[in-house]
Amino acid sequence: MEDLVPMIGQEMMRISDKYFTTEPLCGYARNFIREKQAESMRFGLLTVLHYRMFGGSSEQIYQAAAAIELFILASDILDDLQDGDAPHQVWSQVPAAAAMHTAASFLVLSQQAMLELEFGQAALIRVAHMMNGQLLKAANGQMLDLMNAVTDEDSYMFMVQHKSAALIVMACMTGVMLAGKEWHPIVAQYAEEVGMAAQIKNDIRDLVRWDDKNDFLLRKKTLLTLFLLEEIAEQDLWIKDYFEGRQQSEDIAGRQRMLEEAFDRSGAALYGSVRMRMHFNRFQELLDEVPEAASAKEKLLQIFSS
Amino acid sequence: MLKDAIRTLAASKEKMSMVMGGQLQLAGVSAAEHKALQDALKNQDEKKGNYTLAVWG
């Protein structure tokens, strides 16, 4: 599957050059796509793999995968601009207005690339309808995350289901539907399960790092921080004080080790890991229920594991 | 329930080892939760070939 990554990247660049003909948009777009090419293209790979799993054989699927990745790139840029926590990214090093405009242009470019495909008008309309439905679902989740609107575990799971899982469902289902099939409920379900697992994994990572993306420093409510705060030990009350604004970042400087110990000692780290694995195990069970996935199971697992 | 079970295990390395070895069944924990718990505990020395989920985003 890795050999497909450069092909998807080249398609992104080709589509961008076709429509972004004027500087500086053309240059910004190329730079941002180059940055994306150096990272993973898992969403696009999911589209290609599902297309093939369900019997598709057209080479145009790479353009569809590029369209998916253009949307993901736009989302990443907007997410980084909103959070202001990725100064190393190339789009954080240009004027914010230019980055925002390029991201918005990528959103339209993604749709245009999809509508250009030669899969028949009816199929394209069905796919576009499905994609927009998932993207709008993700938009709801993103706003909940942005506003730190999570209050408990149920609202956290609701946010994750909308924000993260919807995009993986979109990537998989685009492949299924371009292969001429209808919405596949089990594919949707396993994509959602793996999306939930992936987000919990991200949350585990974002808790142990001690930088601008640390969920604790940002006072973000996740499965792990909620677990810890639910029954906090007396020696860890400083964590609650910080979370509730009674202590500031300068008060807790240098307490990374103490925080990690609290997450281990309380069981919060283990709880996150267990919940992540429950979703991943359920994903694997559901995968076994889809006969079309049998031959591609190893490749799918590689995409999610690499 | 799962949360209580995990708090109990976090406080007792002995019980954690017993769950890993399959010698301890936790009350109120479903089969799926128990399997995930064992997977998570074993992950500490996960062998090559076992799939772990990559970080996305």
From TrEMBL, chain A:
PANTHER family, per database record: ALL TRANS-POLYPRENYL-DIPHOSPHATE SYNTHASE PDSS1 (PTHR12001:SF69), GERANYLGERANYL PYROPHOSPHATE SYNTHASE (PTHR12001)
Q: Which SUPFAM superfamilies match?
A: Terpenoid synthases (SSF48576)
Matching InterPro entries: ComQ, Isoprenoid_synthase_dom_sf, Polyprenyl_synt
Q: Into which family does the record put it?
A: Belongs to the FPP/GGPP synthase family.
Q: What is this protein called?
A: Competence regulatory protein ComQ
Q: Does the keyword Metal-binding apply?
A: yes
Pfam families with a match to the protein in the record: polyprenyl_synt
Q: Which UniProt keywords apply?
A: Magnesium, Metal-binding, Transferase
The cofactors named for this UniProt entry are: Mg(2+)
- Which superkingdom heads the taxonomic lineage of this protein's source? Bacteria
Query: Is this entry keyworded Glycosyltransferase?
Result: no
> Organism, per UniProt?
Paenibacillus glycanilyticus
TrEMBL record, chain B:
Please list the GO terms describing molecular function: pheromone activity
Keyword annotations for this protein?
A: Competence, Lipoprotein, Pheromone, Prenylation, Secreted
Major location (coarse) = secreted
- A biological process from GO: establishment of competence for transformation
Could you tell me which Pfam families the record lists for this protein? ComX
Quaternary assembly = Interacts directly with the sensor histidine kinase ComP and stimulates its activity.
Localisation: Secreted
What is this protein's record name?
A: ComX pheromone
